[in-house]
Amino acid sequence: QVQLVESGGGLVQVGGSLRLSCAASGRIFSINTMGWYRRAPGKQRELVARITGGGTTNYADSVKGRFTISRDNARNTVSLQMNSLKPEDTAVYYCNADLTSSSGYYPHWGQGTQVTVSS
Q1: Contact between 38 and 92 (Cβ < 8 Å)
Q2: Per-residue pLDDT tens for 14-50?
Q3: What DSSP line would sit under 51-93, residue for residue?
Q4: Helix, strand, coil % (nearest 5) of the chain?
Q5: What is the pLDDT of residues 45-72, one digit of tens each?
Q6: Spatial distance between the Cα atoms of 113 and 5, rounded to a whole number of angstroms
Q7: How many Å apart are CA 8 and CA 118, to the nearest integer?
Q8: Nearest residue to 49 (alpha-carbon basis) of 30, 29, 63
């Protein structure tokens, strides 16, 4: 059974920083893209950033220049460094990994971690 476990959320003031981390574990054969999504209250889930196994990244326009995604392929981890946080970054953040396990190729999701930016 594959699990994605996130850590690092919390409460921060406007302009502050947080670092989210996510570790994938279980019978994983390979991981393609890893990423972070978020869902703010009353809104749809949206892509924040994602990174391929080769290190190609893409970001939502709203976070470009403030957030940085990185991954460690050897450890099956992905991180999101969030700087210059704004109130509109408040959301539940979800880790995602498109991976191949003993069950086949499926997207997998973490349980979510709350990020709250206070003004």
Answers
A1: yes
A2: 999 999 999 999 999 999 999 999 999 999 999 999 9
A3: E-TT--EEE-GGGTTTEEEEEETTTTEEEEEE-S--GGG-EEE
A4: 5, 60, 35
A5: 999 999 999 999 999 999 999 999 999 9
A6: 9
A7: 16
A8: 63
